[in-house]
């Protein structure tokens, strides 16, 4: 077993190289939350209102800015102000997937200028190591962090086996910029420590009819050694009170982490 699993997030912060990863782990311990909320709504006002309500309970807000109908730089300014007010990091779930030169442009330029505001972003590793190098050239000087998609929560995902294994190797090699993984479990036997973030989390349902597969915070954190739970519709879905649900998932995630620390 990886002994680091029994270390507090704040202790593990010392072992990570990337400054943002260190700051995130420290913040999690301080705010007592390992909850990230995926705010997949399609207009500015709805997203900002939701984030203002749930901000106190999260360590990371995950966005898909390309689904926002009225996206503009004012949205970014307001989201950034909320991240300072409530103290959370912003993770743009861009899932870059092109050659190094193209992802550099996609990350730095265009309508979204993701690198200028997103503390964290992520990429697929299907194009080869150049994607990590390209993103790093833009993001590292800005103090950003990258997550590699080592696995996916959806049914039939092809990110398995040697694909996942090679992804881990690139993270080790670029651990100045790679802060961790999107995955359903902690990977054993890695030289460096990384943050594992798991989507596909639900306390009430098992799937969504489009391939999404949900597991509980206990299962991913205690049984599988993940660190951060990413919850979307479980929090803002129809008929739910987002504040009540955010508190419920925050508690479930933190209890699971405490249980893991206690080594029970
Ligand atoms: P929900 O909890 O509503 O199913 O949302 C999950 C979120 O996590 C979505 O924003 C989705 O894009 C993202 N996600 C995922 O579900 N599985 C993955 O493997 C990777 C993801 O980024």
Automatic annotation (TrEMBL):
Record GO cellular component, one term: protein aggregate center
The protein's enzyme class: lyase
Classification via Pfam families: OMPdecase
Biological process (GO), any one: 'de novo' UMP biosynthetic process
SUPFAM superfamilies, A to Z: Ribulose-phoshate binding barrel
EC number: 4.1.1.23
Similarity-based family: Belongs to the OMP decarboxylase family.
Protein name per UniProt: Orotidine 5'-phosphate decarboxylase
Organism listed in the record: Schizosaccharomyces cryophilus (strain OY26 / ATCC MYA-4695 / CBS 11777 / NBRC 106824 / NRRL Y48691)
Source lineage: Eukaryota, Fungi, Dikarya, Ascomycota, Taphrinomycotina
């Amino acid at each position: 077993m990886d002994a680091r699993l029994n270390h507090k997030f704040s202790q593990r912060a010392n072992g990570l190289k990337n400054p943002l990863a260190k700051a995130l782990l420290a913040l999690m311990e301080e705010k007592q939350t390992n909850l990230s909320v995926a705010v997949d709504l399609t207009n500015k006002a709805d997203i900002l209102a939701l984030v203002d309500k749930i901000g106190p309970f999260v360590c990371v807000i995950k966005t898909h800015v390309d689904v926002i109908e009225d996206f503009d730089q004012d949205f970014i300014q307001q989201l950034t102000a909320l991240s300072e007010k409530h103290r959370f990091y912003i993770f743009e779930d861009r899932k870059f997937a092109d050659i190094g030169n193209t992802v550099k442009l996609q990350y730095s330029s265009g309508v979204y200028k993701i690198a200028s505001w997103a503390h964290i972003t992520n990429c697929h590793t299907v194009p080869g190591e150049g994607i990590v190098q390209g993103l790093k050239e833009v993001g590292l000087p800005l103090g950003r962090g990258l997550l590699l998609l080592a696995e996916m929560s959806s049914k039939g995902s092809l990110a398995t086996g040697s694909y996942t294994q090679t992804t881990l190797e690139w993270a080790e090699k670029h651990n100045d910029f790679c802060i961790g993984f999107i995955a359903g479990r902690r990977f054993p036997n890695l030289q460096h420590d990384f943050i594992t973030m798991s989507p596909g989390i639900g306390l009430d349902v098992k799937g969504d009819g489009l391939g999404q597969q949900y597991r509980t915070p206990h299962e991913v954190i205690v049984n599988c050694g993940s660190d951060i739970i990413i919850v979307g519709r479980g929090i803002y879905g129809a008929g739910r009170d987002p504040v009540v649900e955010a508190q419920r998932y925050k508690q479930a995630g933190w209890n699971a982490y405490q249980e893991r620390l206690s080594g029970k």
